[in-house]
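Query structure, 413 tokens:
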């Protein structure tokens, strides 16, 4: 178990900053950046952090400091990226089904834009012709991902333009003399092996020779991270070798060197995050023993939304001699169980004995946890802390009641 981050005990962090609390380990993020670079060391690689996973400004600055660029999906993420110091040319805008004024805003700010449907492709062509380069997001009709909700390249997915609409794409590109600088696809999240990546890359590269101005092949992200001991993960060495070889072979045929882009989100930040909560109550009934913590699906929704498994342990008790099975639950007024099984069902976890007041730690909380949090039940959003160079720094203040009522308008009734 990991009872500390960079030699700072989790219980000390909980005492200093209070709970519920998100804590991120900068060293783990830097380590994952290095792994990705090493896996694709033979190609002209560019890492574009998919910041929807975690948009904290300090996390974005950390990415920028270590040479990672950024992928955004909304005007607000775009503004955050610029606040973090990214220039327009370092930002990729990859929206889905947005209004064209968002595309125009991104174009005006000089970002690279992924166009994901024929309607917006035509509008972009009419307005900009070949004066602004763009990428096209293609749907390669490949199944890949750990959950149906996070598969994004299969035939029924809303994302991208189907590869079977190649003729319509080329007709629009030629009609408006568009400058298509890149092709993009994203298979999904939690893809375990090279097979799905290879199928998607093959589909994209088969079409790529039809575009004369390419600078970029963007293969998205979706590399699987471990959620428990012995969990299968993406074989980065295999993926790196297979995709690098296919990419270099394409460049040779295409006649010039291109950049290979990836847009990892979860891969870079998931394992860096730990969520800390306090056990409010240990409730024993004839069937189960519940640990009720001072948080719920409002703060960490992945288990309830996806049936996701997160490792959970008692950070206050390292004595393994007395363990019990607990169902870890939240304080929201509906079922919000954190201790889902690997099979995606509500269950229990074997944990060192828990008493009221103990600090309960939930691992893999760096991605799609705070970024999906809400004020449901009018509960306050938690604080966030970054541990960097052995020092814990507050990077988001805990909500106050003023944050809940800030935008309410009271009218006479």
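Result returned for the query:
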């Amino acid at each position: 178990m990991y009872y500390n981050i960079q030699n700072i005990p989790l219980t000390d962090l909980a005492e200093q900053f209070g709970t519920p609390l998100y804590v991120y380990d900068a060293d783990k993020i830097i380590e994952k950046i290095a792994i990705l670079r090493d896996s694709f060391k033979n190609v002209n690689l560019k890492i574009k952090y998919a910041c929807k996973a975690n948009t904290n400004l300090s996390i974005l600055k950390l990415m920028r400091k270590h040479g990672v660029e950024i992928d955004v999906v909304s005007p607000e993420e775009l503004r955050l990226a610029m606040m973090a110091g990214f220039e327009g040319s370092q930002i990729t805008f990859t929206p889905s089904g947005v209004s064209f004024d968002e595309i125009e805003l991104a174009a005006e700010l000089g970002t690279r834009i992924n166009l994901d449907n024929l309607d917006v492709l035509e509008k972009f062509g009419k307005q900009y012709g070949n004066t602004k380069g763009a990428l096209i997001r293609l749907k390669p009709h490949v199944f890949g991902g750990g959950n149906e909700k996070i598969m994004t390249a299969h035939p029924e997915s809303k994302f991208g333009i189907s590869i079977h609409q190649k003729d319509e794409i080329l007709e629009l590109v030629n009609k408006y003399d568009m400058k298509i600088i890149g092709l993009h696809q994203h298979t999904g999240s939690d893809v375990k092996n090279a097979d799905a990546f290879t199928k998607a890359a093959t589909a994209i590269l088969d079409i790529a020779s039809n575009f004369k101005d390419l600078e970029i092949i963007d293969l998205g992200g979706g590399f699987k991270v471990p959620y428990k001991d012995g969990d299968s993960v993406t074989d980065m060495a295999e993926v790196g070798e297979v995709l690098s070889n296919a990419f270099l072979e394409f460049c040779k045929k295409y006649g010039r060197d291109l950049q290979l882009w990836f847009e990892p989100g979860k891969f870079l930040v998931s394992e860096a995050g730990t969520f800390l909560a306090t056990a409010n109550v240990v409730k024993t009934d004839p069937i189960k023993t519940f640990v009720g913590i001072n948080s719920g699906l409002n703060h960490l929704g992945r288990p309830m939304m996806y049936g996701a498994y997160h490792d959970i342990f008692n950070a206050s008790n390292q004595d393994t001699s007395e363990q019990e099975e607990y169902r870890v639950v939240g304080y929201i007024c509906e079922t919000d169980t954190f201790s889902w099984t690997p099979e995606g069902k509500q269950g229990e976890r074997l944990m060192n004995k828990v008493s009221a007041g103990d600090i309960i730690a939930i691992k893999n909380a760096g991605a799609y946890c705070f970024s999906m949090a809400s004020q449901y039940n009018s509960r306050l959003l938690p604080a966030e802390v970054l541990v960097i160079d052995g020092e814990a720094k507050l990077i988001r203040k805990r909500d106050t009641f003023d944050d809940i009522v800030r935008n309410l308008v009271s009218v006479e009734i």
